Amino acid sequence: MPQLSWLGDGEAKRIARRVPYRMLEPIESVGEAGAGNWLIQGDNLEALKALLPFYAGRVKCIFIDPPYNTKSAFEHYDDNLEHSQWLSMMYPRLELLRDLLAEDGSIWVTIDDNEGHYLKVLMDEVIGRRGFVASLIWQKADSPRNSARQFSSDHDYIHVYAKNPEWIPKKLPRNEESDSIYSNPDNDERGPWLPGDPYANKPYSKGQYTITGPSSRTFSPPPGRFWRISEEKLRSLDSEGRIWWGPTGEARPSIKRYLSEVSDLIPRTLWGKDAVGSNRTSKNEMRALFPGEESFGTPKPERLLERVLHISTLPGDLVLDSFLGSGTTAAVAHKMGRRWIGIEMGEHARTHCLPRLKKVVEGEQGGISQSVNWHGGGGFRFMKLGEPVFGADGRINPGVRFAALAAYLWFLETGAPHPTGRFDSPLLGSDGRTALILLYNGILGDRRPESGNVLTQAVWQAILDTLPPHDGPRVIYGEACRLSPARLKRLDATFRQIPYDIRMR
Asked: If you ran DSSP here, which 8-state letter would residue 475 be given?
């Protein structure tokens, strides 16, 4: 497959593996802290790496609104990046986002013409060309900008990719506009209907015949075309009142499509401002949330995110936005009953996102609140990136607790987050055959030497005495081992020394 090349691309394609694994430290809890929602302040590349041990392969929908590289200054972003720098910024983040995405998940990225086509090629390379679903067009402008030098830009793009090429979007509910084209001129007891085209474009073995209508006028398909259904079927539908011959009975037969029998709507690629809001809509939403303050530079309207999440998720699914900006994705996900993680590096994570999401918990009535019957509830944790787990010399940071290291080691060994995320004993779990054991921070209850962090015969016996039986190999992480290689082989155990046998993914 063709690949995109740019100045510094080699380093950009290696950097995700080199990002240090950091701890996530809670700053504040709002409402129900155990609701599973996180607002994280910090560099999103490092935050995404920190999330891997907990959420790799578990995020159902990723929505990001990255800087557009438009060479214009925003208050909250430096959007004036050179093209190569922008690509180098996006590539490793897309790699980590791909690893967090569930097998049945989708990723949605907003962009404009400045980098939109390069982003498409970049996502083809990182996510996979077969995962491309569509490039949506969102009508962002309410009116033309007459000061534009060439064209007044009316739209942005949303590139949609799926982890699995067989991914199917959920349909949209019908509305007054979609239903308004149905009518009932003949007072059909089955309700409003729409006349359907009776012709088929492809040959149909029973599609060539002549039929007589109520006015004795005869009808045949035009040259090169065919009736959609057989003559027997058409006569049967006509006897049931399901064929329309026009108000005087002289029109060609049309097959009635009843409103009561049609399904919800297939999503289309053109999203108008009347359906999902515009830039003006979103700025008005922000002014209502923060009266008297200057509007955030590039917010997205809540109805736009409502449509994205309706198409891509169900209640309880996990949504991630690593360029959270003004907090719209998290706010909408919360109101729609989805779990969410939002990452924002700037100070406005505290000054904008945090107070906005507190208002959501309290039941604010802006945006989509009334349409989804939102009255408040739930909660979230406000987190920050802590110290790296490993120092420059490779040693583990003294502040790392047992559970944090256990989560990372489980992910390192299995490539997936722990099924429960709870670590309260040296036995972290089993992949069905091999048990993973961690001796760290005196988890065995200060059994000498070195508080039980060294694998000795006594510690081994304690493992056998205190942990559930396991018939199979064991992998044991600890600070040192006093058992001989021959003894370990007889015990069907593999010892890995902390920190030297730990490698970052």
From this structure: E
349 and 39 Cβ atoms separated by less than 8 Å: yes
Closest-CA residue to 92 (of 159, 162, 13): 13
State the virtual CA torsion across 301, 307, 308, 312 in degrees, nearest 10: 160
Residue 72 has pLDDT above 80, yes or no: no
Torsion angles phi and psi, residue 50, rounded to 5: -65, -25
- Given a contact cutoff of 8 angstroms between Cβ atoms, the answer to whether 322 and 64 are in contact is yes
CB 34 within 8 A of CB 339: no
* Residues 6+ away with beta carbon under 8 Å from 356: 289, 290, 326, 327, 331
User: In angstroms, what is the C-alpha Rg of the chain?
Assistant: 30
Beta-carbon contacts of residue 3 (< 8 Å; ≥ 6 apart): 125
Is the per-residue pLDDT at 445 higher than 60? no
The stretches of 336-456 forming alpha helices (DSSP H) are 348, 354-362, 402-414
Angstrom distances, CA of residue 104 to CA of 24, 60, 107, 161: 27, 7, 11, 11
Write out the CATH class of domain 21-170+267-381: alpha beta
pTM above 0.85, yes or no: no
Q: What percent of the chain has pLDDT over 90?
A: 58
**CA nearest neighbour of 456 among 425, 430, 491:** 491
Report how far residue 295's alpha carbon sits from residue 273's, in angstroms, rounded to the nearest whole number: 19
Taking CA atoms, 129 is separated from 92, 105, 156, 160, 161, in Å, by: 17, 16, 21, 11, 9
- The whole-number pLDDT of residue 504 equals 43
Sorted by where each begins, the domain ranges of the chain are: 21-170+267-381, 176-261, 402-497
Q: Which tokens is 180 given?
A: 């308004």
Inter-residue contact 436 to 406 (CB < 8 Å): no
- For residue range 251-300, list pLDDT tens digits in order: 999 999 999 888 888 999 999 999 999 999 999 999 999 887 766 667 89
ω into 499 cis (within 30 of 0): yes
Dihedral sign for Cα 98, 100, 106, 111, please: negative
pLDDT at 79 over 80: no
- In this prediction, residues 176-184 reach a mean pLDDT of 87
Distance CA 286, CA 354 (A): 14
Give the other-Cβ count within 10 Å of 417's Cβ: 19
Environment class of 416 (CB within 10 Å of its CB; exposed 0-12, middle 13-18, buried 19+): middle
Run of H or E residues at 232 = helix 231-239
- Residue in 394, 400, 436 with CA at minimum distance from that of residue 415: 436
CA atoms of 380 and 99, how far apart (whole Å): 24
Give the pairing type, strands 155-162 and 132-139: antiparallel
Say if residues 15 and 49 touch (Cβ distance below 8 Å): no
Residue-level pLDDT at 75? 53
Number of Cβ atoms within 10 Å of the Cβ of 103: 11
